[in-house]
């Protein structure tokens, strides 16, 4: 499905990220289940207010308005079926899209500046990359094969970095990431830096990316 681009915003200082227009979270969730074979589950949603949008969870100071699990059993509700996903979002097509990690993928999460630096370097070296997202809290998520998150400290240690590299975080089993076009309060929407396509369907091992990411985080 080709996206319509409304504008391009430079969040990295060197790379513009297209802002998709028109696709509802419900449609994106069905597409992820159908085309990518990812598990999806609806989260909370933004509620329009007179002053500012609030979160459907009702918390006055919600740290992630419209972008977190709506129920405690969200992991059990997650589905890889496009039919079930369509049903889950029927009641609220604008509920956020949560992508459980530790199932078909983990993500390696780094600050925006480090993420774009590492991405540029890996592209020059023609490293095989999977999908990559940018989130409004200025983080970049690299999708890798599942099982990476628990091994991340050891992978970093082998490279000679401190046991926990600066701001290099793994998201694995029991966790989730936000799928585009989920909006996070007034901060904006999660966006694809590298969209999931047939060419990057086969995800890289974490070992292939950790070196560049740890180096970029340590600069």
From TrEMBL:
One Pfam family cited in the UniProt record for this chain: Prim-Pol
UniProt superkingdom: Bacteria
Residue ranges, compositional bias (Basic and acidic residues): 1-12
InterPro entries, per database record: DNA_primase/pol_bifunc_N
Region (Disordered) location: 1-22
Annotated TM spans: none
Boundaries of every DNA primase/polymerase bifunctional N-terminal domain copy: 29-210
Protein's name according to its UniProt entry: Bifunctional DNA primase/polymerase
Provenance organism: Streptomyces pactum
């Amino acid at each position: 499905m080709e996206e319509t681009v409304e504008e391009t915003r430079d969040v990295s200082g060197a790379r513009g990220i297209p802002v998709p227009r028109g696709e509802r979270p419900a449609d994106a969730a069905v597409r992820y289940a159908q085309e990518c074979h990812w598990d999806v589950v609806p989260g909370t949603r933004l509620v329009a207010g007179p002053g500012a949008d609030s979160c459907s969870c009702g918390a006055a100071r919600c740290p992630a308005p419209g972008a977190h699990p709506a129920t405690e059993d969200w992991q059990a509700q997650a589905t890889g079926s496009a039919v079930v996903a369509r049903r889950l979002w029927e009641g609220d097509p604008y509920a956020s899209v949560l992508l459980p990690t530790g199932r078909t993928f983990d993500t390696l999460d780094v600050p925006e500046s480090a993420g774009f630096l590492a991405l540029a370097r890996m592209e020059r070296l023609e490293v095989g990359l999977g999908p990559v997202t940018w989130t409004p809290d200025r983080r970049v998520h690299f999708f890798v094969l599942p099982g990476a998150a628990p091994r991340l400290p050891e992978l970093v240690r082998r490279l000679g970095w401190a046991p926990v590299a600066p701001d290099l975080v793994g998201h694995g089993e029991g966790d989730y990431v936000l799928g585009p076009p989920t909006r996070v309060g007034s901060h904006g929407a999660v966006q694809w830096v590298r969209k999931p396509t047939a060419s990057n369907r086969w995800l890289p091992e974490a070992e292939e990316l950790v070196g560049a990411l740890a180096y970029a985080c340590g600069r």
